[in-house]
Design brief:
It is built from no helices and 13 strands. It is globular, with a radius of gyration of 18 Å. The protein starts with a strand and ends in a 16-residue tail after the last strand.
């Protein structure tokens, strides 16, 4: 069974590029990275914008916007399982726009056999949600009870000040006030989730975006060929 570990969350209020704090993953883990990006057009962010100090690469899975589409919340999944357990960081560029402050939250997921987009069974998210409402992103269908689920809410509050969904574990709830005030709350559930809509336990005090992922913990089937003689 797969299992989630929060590795590091770092607010970085500098102009792009922005970097996470250092972390030490576990051999064989899949990395999942949530990023807020202030003053960044989400459509300009691509997979190559997230880089690793140990040369891992990432796939961009989903992007949502908040603060009237002025800011982005995005999530990446690594294209390889961890093979280097030295202290390392990840760094986000900002595509073709100027991109200001950022919050970077890194997870390691053990027990995974799939990587990049193949590691995600399904995903959901919300953009430009209004203050005073409850984050409630939805999957297309029910999650499988044996899979890990991870989610994030980004808003314009420091800290984000949200309560995690029921039966989920909150990893961190942080933010910054330099530049445009920004917060990020992330949470996960290792197993037992069978819902479609994932509802947070409180409203957001400010406009927000949300993202949820269900990771596919199944073992990929080996390809095979059948040969037939005659009709």
């Amino acid at each position: 069974m797969a299992s989630v570990t929060h590795l590091v969350t770092t607010p970085d209020t500098n102009n792009t590029p922005n970097a996470s704090g250092s972390f030490v993953p576990t051999i064989g883990d899949l990395l999942v990275v949530f990023v807020t990006k202030e003053a960044s057009v989400h459509t300009s962010i691509v997979s190559a914008d997230l880089t690793s100090s140990v040369s891992m690469t990432f796939s961009l899975i989903r992007a949502q916007t908040f603060r009237s589409s002025a800011d982005a919340l995005v999530v990446f999944v690594s294209n390889q399982l961890v093979s280097n357990v030295s202290s390392q960081t990840v760094q986000i560029e900002s595509g073709s726009d100027s991109g200001l402050g950022s919050i970077i939250s890194v997870y390691g997921v053990s027990g995974m056999r799939r990587t990049n987009t193949g590691a995600v069974r399904q995903q959901g998210g919300q953009s430009n949600q209004t203050a005073g409402t409850t984050p409630a992103p939805a999957f297309a269908g029910a999650a499988l009870t044996g899979n890990c689920c991870i989610g994030a809410v980004a808003n314009a509050t420091n800290p984000a000040g949200l309560t995690n969904p029921g039966s989920w574990s909150e990893s961190q709830d942080t933010g910054y006030t330099t530049g445009a005030v920004t917060g990020l709350e992330t949470a996960f559930r290792n197993s037992g989730e069978t819902g479609t809509t994932i509802t947070w336990g409180s409203t957001s005090a400010s406009a927000f975006a949300s993202i949820i992922l269900e990771l596919d913990a199944s073992v990929p089937k080996a390809g095979f060929f059948k040969f037939f003689n005659g009709a």
